[in-house]
Amino acid sequence: MLTHLRIPGNALPGSLSVTHGRCGKPTCRCSSGEGHEAWTLTFMHAGKKHVLRIPRELVELVRRRVEHGKAFREAVAEIFASNALLLAIEARQRRR
């Protein structure tokens, strides 16, 4: 059981993903290959989806921060589920 939870100051929400696209220039290497790599961070805020382009040199940093955010969300979900189970136990004991 978790006894305390520290909010990670550098955590990020959402998911990091990579896509490959073509720039449209007929002489570019992407016209016959996989395409240019483009990294994005996708997350929801105030009910709206946001997509941020992430420069290649920041991908690993952003990946770690997204992992921190996911770990924090999972820990909070575990606490909420534990609280719900404790409430159910308390309610059963009160009925006795």
Order of helices and strands: EEEH
SS strand fraction? 25-35%
Q: Rg, please?
A: 21 Å
How many strands appear in the DSSP assignment?
A: 3
Categorize the overall geometry: elongated
Oligomeric nature of the chains: single chain
Straight-line N-to-C gap: 27 Å
**Category from helices, strands and their pairing:** alpha+beta
Low confidence ranges: none
Q: Could you describe the 3D structure shown?
A:
The chain is of the alpha+beta class and 96 residues long. It has one domain. It has 1 helix and 3 strands. It has a 3-stranded antiparallel β-sheet with strand order 1-2-3, with helices on one face. A hairpin with a 2-residue loop joins strand 2 and strand 3. The radius of gyration is 21 Å and the shape is elongated.
What's the structural blueprint in terms of helices and strands?
Elements: E1 15-21, E2 36-45, E3 48-54, H1 59-95
Antiparallel strand pairs: 1-2, 2-3
Write a short abstract of this structure.
Helix content is 39%, strand content 25%. The chain is an alpha+beta fold.
What key phrases describe this protein's structure?
alpha+beta, three-stranded antiparallel sheet, elongated, 96 residues
